[in-house]
Specification:
Blueprint: E1 3-6, H1 7-33, H2 38-44, H3 52-73, E2 78-81, H4 83-92, H5 94-109, H6 116-141, H7 149-162, H8 183-207, H9 211-230, H10 245-252, E3 254-255, E4 264-265, H11 267-284, H12 286-296, H13 298-303, H14 308-334, H15 345-355, H16 367-386, H17 391-415
Antiparallel strand pairs: 1-2, 3-4
Helix pairs in contact: 1-3, 5-16, 6-11, 6-14, 6-15, 6-16, 7-8, 7-9, 7-14, 8-9, 8-14, 10-14, 11-12, 12-14, 15-16, 15-17
Amino acid sequence: MERHVAREKYDRFFIMAGAAVLVLGLLLYLCQNWAALDAVKKALSLRKIYDLPIFLMIIGFVLGLKGALSSRKHAGGEVVFSAKNFSAFLTNNAILLAMLVLVIVICVLQPRFMQIRVALDILTQSSTRLIIALGICFTLLIAGTDLSAGRMVGLASVVSASMLQTATYANRFFPNLPQVELWMPILAAIAACMLFGALNGFLVAKYDMHPFIATLAVQVIIYGACSLYFDMPPNNSQPIGGVRPDFAAIGQMRIFATGSFQGISILIPIAVVICIAIWFILNKTVFGKNVYAIGGNREAAVVAGINVFRCIMGIFILASCLYGIAGVLEAARTAGATNNYGNGYELDAIAACVVGGVSLNGGIGKVSGIVIGVLIFTVIQYGLQFINVSPMWQQVIKGIIIAVAVAIDLTKYRKK
């Protein structure tokens, strides 16, 4: 049975619901911070809900904004409610809905999870993972993959940190290296990754080698080369530390810090800027359109006159550039590096992309979905740690999520 609702009425519901949630959050916030209502706060345990009022205001604003933008974009028309549409909605958003249920359970078990500080920590942890996932998504969009991503992160971390140590540090990687400009080692680290990215692209595009095999081979080469570099005397495989303050600031600096508010990690706006850039590349450039075309049907792309060799080379080089940036940020965030940095990061990035709706069959995927996928994994990992769930159970849950996400992806592909 179908029910048709006017688009205007549908959008108005979101606006009104958003306004109601926003007002509720505002009232709770005022009650929570009004000294005259101490008795009410104690009776209702308002102090134990921490920053829930702020989260409610944010949710209300987003709901209202969605309704307002939708009403402008879709003037007139109808929205159809049916069992088929509802089933499709559950299928497409199963992982997201499961995460929301998990977050609610965590908040009930441990109310301290409802804090702005916790949300900012989750966003900070997601930042470098998101940059890596955005690189991986290009290779997945052409029905490929990139197993060398994690090792490129480690390579960039080691190269940048090794050349950006303070002059007074006792165990310098290059004892006689003068204090160079900050940007030079960073560019060198990213360029080293891009060289290996070009090798990935060449093997895949020139010899039609499966990306799994090509990037697996390059992964081993990168780890070996990075380990040889890391083992050079006088370092002899010792963890690299003593990085310069200006380099560490790239990953540790906080902005908008005022009073008791510790501020926002600089990694968050960096990740946002890169997200916008990748969205623009995928949606507003010829290169982005070609990526989707090759992933959708490579033979048709060749017939349409797309230079597949050049496009695949560009994909792997661009992806490696993003891995290099993530590696530099990781070294700056932790103020050090070892040759094992980035180990396994590519698997988490691939899983996040799949959970976010990037099809393993190629040609389907959005930046917004990748952002959601990365956040889902970070929230689940951080939340389960927050309530002291065993790391072994965390791995089990992560594996279940990946299996379900791939099953959903394959189901949708078969239907199409």
